[in-house]
Prior knowledge:
CATH topology of the largest domain: Peroxisomal Thiolase, Chain A, domain 1
Family: Belongs to the thiolase-like superfamily. Beta-ketoacyl-ACP synthases family.
InterPro entries: Ketoacyl_synth_C (IPR014031), Ketoacyl_synth_N (IPR014030), PKS_Beta-ketoAc_synthase_dom (IPR020841), PKS_NRPS_Biosynth_Enz (IPR050091), Thiolase-like (IPR016039)
Structural class: alpha/beta
GO biological process, one term: fatty acid biosynthetic process
GO molecular function: fatty acid synthase activity
Keywords: Multifunctional enzyme, Transferase
Amino acid sequence: MHAGPAPSPAEPIAIVGMSALYPHARGLTELWDLLTTDAPPPARPGRDTSTGSVSLLDDVDVDVARFGVPPAQARSMARLQLLMLEAARQCLADAGTGVEGGRLPDHTDVVVGTCLGLDRQYANALRVDGARYARDLAVAVEELKSVTGLEGPGDGRGTTAVLDGPEAERELNAVLTRRLGASPHDRVGEMASTIPARIAAAFKLRGRTLAVESADATSYWALAHAVDVLRAGLADAVLAVVGQRAEGRLLPRALAAKGLLAEETRLDAGDAGGSAPAEGLGALLLKRESTARRDGDRIYAAVLDCVLGHDARPGPFRYPTAAAHRRQAAQAAHRATGVPTASVGYVECAGYGVAAESRAEHEALAALHAGAPEGTVALGSARDRLGHTFANAGLASITKAALALHHRVLPPLRTGHGAARLPVPQAPFRHPAAPERWNPSSDGAPRHAAVAAASLTGTVAYVLLREGTAGEARDRRPSSGGEADSSGPGAASGAARTAVGGPGGGPGGGPGGGTHGGTGAGRAAAGGDPVPGCSGGPVRIAVQAGPGSDVVPGTGPGSGTGPDVAPGTGPGFGTGFGTGVRPGPEPIAVVGFGGRFAGADDADGFWRVMLSGRDRIGPLPRELFDREVYHSPGAMRLGRSYTDLGAPVAVPAQAPEGLRVAPDRFAGMDPAQRLGLTVAAEVFARYGRVPSALEGTGVVAVGSNLGLSLERRLHTGLCLDDLEADVRGLGALGGLPPDALRALLKLVRERFGEPGSVDVPTALDGCLASGTAALLANEHGLDAVPVAVEAACASSLAALDVAVNRLRSGSADYAIAGGVELPCNPRDLVLCASLGLLSHERITPFDAAADGFTPGDGCALFLLKRLTDARRAGDRVFGVVRAVGAANDARSLIAPDVEGQARAVRQAFDQVDFDPAEVDYLEAHGTGTRLGDRVEIAAAAEVYGTGRRGAPLHIGTAKSFLGHTFAAAGAAGLLRALQAVRHATLPPSVNLTTLSPDLAPVLDAIPARVATEAAPWPARRGGPRRAGVSSFGTGGINYHLLIEEDTDGTR
């Protein structure tokens, strides 16, 4: 943020429901007992990982039927999907909502966080890779026979069994299928974004749904995004669920390679042993505090601020070891909220168990609390009892701090062997040896707690919490925390509650109240009167207290002006959420962009492809798709694809010029990371300035599958010994002499190739989906917080939505957002073909012959700023993002829904000051199926068919040229719409021979047309050229973006 006076605090966000699932604590009551006693935790199952034992959640029983999951799909669900459904149920039950209680508002978002792949994803990849291994086995058998002359093992009595390579291949594939499972629903069951979609469907939540990953800062990103959308009035409630599973041996091995793994978590900085990995899940239900009070909710605690920053350091990922960024994050939170640091009585630390990181953590806290009286700040860490739950670590800490505020008890630090021994650098800090009553301050100010942390990729976080204050609803839960009992499926405790809202229910007259007005209302995000001049500069609405939201002592403006609050927040640090103004629908400028897709090495080449009149789809090269193993033309067979077509992109072999990345390190990155870094170089080149010219704080949000191909490959490598054990048990090789068997297995490994080593310090870096964003920030030295976003095929627009909300909240001054994925590979073709999603020929959107999509690789990224900031800096503005709407069908995971898609489009228009009839071009999702095309055009007609049009709406899709680029699809659509606006040209679609008869009457009613030739785009009298971009994903995930040209107020 730009320098200025300390702002007034924004509205607090209330935590009205929580849940906890940990190996030693199944529910809030057990968690609080664990956190407040010094007794050893009860024995739970563990898994030997060859680097130590990981505490597990394998014995948690989940009743799938209660969530409406069909049995056929349940068998293909990742274990984490089941556990997160249960965590969500318990959280909603704890809040008195959900299936057992009242109803949540329709505008309830679901954001989940997790890190690394899911067990189903690993199983699918191993089964697909195993098919190639089985083929290599068959070839190796024949080679062995030809080299040795061995036809089969003798039994010593003159008989010989014939070695049969093809039979060994068939037998091994059968073994893998039995052990790993195989179903048409495997693709849906392995996706991280299916988790929020299933939660939305189970509880009929129709807000935005997405999954995020930012290594062990994942929880803080989930919370930050929730606060953004709540304060912007884009949601009335947010359910945040964050979990970590230790699937297989990859995570502990990769942590060990970085020197971050320990058998037990010892938080003494002198131990320098790292942390013990563990599984864990938790959930928070969040509302604006005024809404929670109006609804009579019990409030555990209120989130006053959640500041994220980034300590960018090139090279392999590692925790920040400097105290400055941590201190600045905390100072930003206290300055923004006006809460004196002296008001904080408890700090929940990360507790790394590694010397340099622990020193940095406590040096930052010592500087923050310098001069405070002795023993006034208690320190603790959930990690001393829970271990390091990685993605979930932040939520575990927030839950602990919220429970401490709720119970008004300071939790103790474990003592004895393996205990947390946090260093005490300054007199204010102390370590409670037993639970202590948390006494109120002498001036009657509310209790405050803080959560401080930093992540492996460089992110620093500081969350400031306040206790639930007097005047709110009577606590209706047991003093122990009273969660829904998790001792068995279907068990729940806590009294039933009345409904906390209905369809479209908003917070009344409170800040951000109500749902948005009708289409074209030009309303601010808070839901007020039409705001003039939305196309020009920023529109901000001052925060006013709503009903029942009295100003809390110690949190008002001026209360933090004492000597213990930093007069400034340090260079490059924003003020978090506490900007003191309501973010209006401020236009967001695109000041740089880049892209690489099939047939196009850059964004200019992409536009030439769009005007070329022909697609870039063709047979995949053998190095990408082994037809002998995976191709079964014309037939649907599990493990095979009936098509071999795609639109691939060559993965860059060298780092972009100017980046000091060693060749071997660049080669060790995931292909998506390499492609993202390359496209980012084009973004900065088009921006016209070096990355260091970007001022302030930023965000890098990249749409991506949260399970990368390198991770899957390394996991397969860890399973080669298991595959070889399977080979030893094959009947087709029974009795083969040991020497011959060893020779055979060696031949197979040589043919199969080495998948790579997990035992190098950079292995984990290449497995993180957020690694693409983190590499971009770190290697360019940007103070930009990285995150990966998965929302199925809408991932790119979901990432854009995250970035736009960060900019509008004032939490970021610039953003890089977009998407990347490379689905032209056997795994994606096989899994999508098994569900019948692929076209037998090639994708033909809106055509009568449409029968599915064709996969394509690609990446597009965009550099964004607030329009006023871009103009102030003299940036060239290539286009202006006006709004992003999002919604979930809350119905089928696979079949699209007209109302759900239309809801997302309406939400976009609710944020702007123009009507749908003023949009000339619609960049469609263009799924390429009869049903999908019919639903999309019907949904478009619901919104774009209103009002009087001067000319038909022009509809097209990039997919007709490039295929479906999965997580990059929305970015491809936005790039096409942006280029169309820039070049004043309406782009065509290809592969449209006969318009589907389902579409013609609907198109006529809008009116609209799907053009097959490019056409000039005339300037609109009195306004800019405008386009809409749709992106819809599996799980009923719907996003719609509105973009316009920058006329600089001249039209």
